[in-house]
Amino acid sequence: MNAAPGARGILRRAPVCQPKSGPLSPPSPPSPTRRAPRWPSLATALAAAALLFTGCLRSQPAADLTIVNGPEPESLDPHILTGQADGRVAEALFEGLTRYNPETGRAMPGLAERWDISPDGRTYLFHLRTNAVWSTGGPITAEDFVYSWRRALDPATACEYAGNLFYVKNARAFNAGKLPATDTLGVHAEDSHTLRVDLEGPTAFFLDLCAFWTLAAVPRELVQRYGDRWMTARPFAASGAYVLESWRLNDRIRLRKNPRYWDAANTHSEIVDLLPCISPTTALNLYITGAADVVWDKELVPVDLLDVLLKRPDFHSYDYLGNYFFRFNVTRKPFDDPRVRRALALVIDKDRLVRKITKAGERVATCLSPPGIANGETVYHPPAGLPYDPPAGRRLLAEAGFPDGKGFPSFVYLMDTQKTHEKIAIELQEMWQRELGIHVELRQLEWKAYLRAQYMLEYDACRSSWIGDYDDPNTFLDLFMSDNPNNRTGWRNAHYDQLITEANQQTSSTAREKILQTAEGMLLREEVPIVPLFFYAGIEYFSPDRISGVHANLLAEHPIRAIEKHPVQAKPRPAPAAATHDRKPAGVIPAG
Questions:
Q1: DSSP string covering 528-581, please?
Q2: Measured between alpha carbons, how far is 510 from 515 in angstroms, rounded to an integer?
């Protein structure tokens, strides 16, 4: 999933609603509407405005749990959203056949209480819970999943994560518009509580995929009636642990516990506020002052204070499946030449980036798949990519017709507005100028404009990142198949596509690993449409004495339903003889 901060630099409170004279009544439901274009900024704004109005009708009680969530979401529709901050909210509202285990990040039973798998690994029978109902009271059925998966795959939806369903029989062809008859899609309701899924081949990570938001159940009746504005309809229909109470732009998203959720007894917080914020200083101040209980984005940690903060017991660092890289737009010259792309990759001193800028224990990346990622029951060993070798880079650039950078056109490196990205871009700019003699302009866009530019290939080179959706190298390598909407480089290679497809049909993890290694080597040593820079180190801050349910795992998955805030325990007053006047060391920010 995309894992970049958004564009708003500080948290700004939404304006207070001023009601007109006379009694207030709730807004009427939206009228039915047709689907809007792919970039739903207007629909999102209308939805948020309606929710803002609804939220102003009554005084707001304090939240039981407040989380700084990163950028303002683009959408909360599981089939539209792309960002990590958006997905965290959607996962609380909509559940799939499986859900994430808060300790391991792996799949555990969700709306399906159990499943049967055929001996060849190609057919799954999911048995839905008989007590699973929408927050409005109606039963959640197998037909709801058939509809939801078809919607995600429908070309008209333009779901960028539709590829997560391509392992289902005929899903790829259906998404490409080649199979208009939906009955050919390999997902069928055997009865109201039995869902049959036929796959193209054995897929070791399929149950983990079923926990991802794209495969969650959405309310068919509301979506069909209201189109893109279905999330503004009331009553709100959720299949997950929470319902959406309000969404106030630049202020907060408020979730309320869904009392009809099948596992409501283990949903620990009644009201949860998620605050939009991309400023590390603002995030830290919200935490220190007690306005927030959890901050769970590494990029919301002030880099200049990392040395101090990482020593605190309420700052938690761990490895997870995240890669920071940049993309080339290979449809633009001179980046259509692999020699040029390799030359720019070879002169990057990645060790300098993690020592000088990120400073949180990030590991240099020459491969795309992070160390420790699973390959079935074994561990995948990715091949090494290009090393740091400036002389080799200069030779390749000369071979491409640009000796010492002469004649190389100035190009633009695109990024969003987070400060760390700017610092990294400045270092890349200096390295390319010093080692290759080429000039780079830096350009920053707000988050949504940045995503659109990347999606539309309106860039030369741009910073990027990816957080694994499941614990398997396919979650990274599948991105750059020709028909994956998240490719966003213009690079297409039929042999690479064939290798990834062939690898995922293997039943032997050893045979699969060899094929994946061949594909990853081609991607990062030969073709180089992307250049990995480092693997993320996860950092979250919360007091372990007050917050439970947040566990380090490779996917950085922390289901909101599992998080609980505990009251502060009064400390016994020390005896008079032992009283002291302690002073905190200079430079240490007091814990919130």
A1: -SEEEEEEEEEEEE--TTTEES----TT----GGG-EE-PPPPPPPPPGGG---
A2: 9
Identify the residue whose tokens are 């994946």.
Answer: 516
Q: What is the rounded distance in angstroms from the CA atom of residue 248 to the CA atom of residue 470?
A: 31
In tens, the pLDDT along 109-138 reads 999 999 999 999 999 999 999 999 999 999
Q: Each residue of 179-195: pLDDT tens digit?
A: 876 779 999 999 999 99
Spatial distance between the Cα atoms of 93 and 216, rounded to a whole number of angstroms: 9
Q: Cα(308)–Cα(126) distance, rounded to whole angstroms?
A: 49
**Which spans in 66-178 are helix H?**
84-93, 142-153, 171-175
List, in order, residues 6 or more apart from 426 with CB less than 8 Å away: 442
* Ordered DSSP codes for 489-530: S----HHHHHHHHHHTT-S-HHHHHHHHHHHHHIIIIII-SE
368/474 Cα distance (integer angstroms): 10
Cβ contact 341:475 at 8 Å: no
What would the two tokens of residue 286 be?
Answer: 């919200």
Q: CA–CA separation, 165 vs 172, rounded Å?
A: 8
Nearest to 512 by CA among 378, 385, 386, 321: 378
The backbone region for 372, taken as left when phi is positive above 0, alpha when psi lies in -120 to 50, beta otherwise, is left
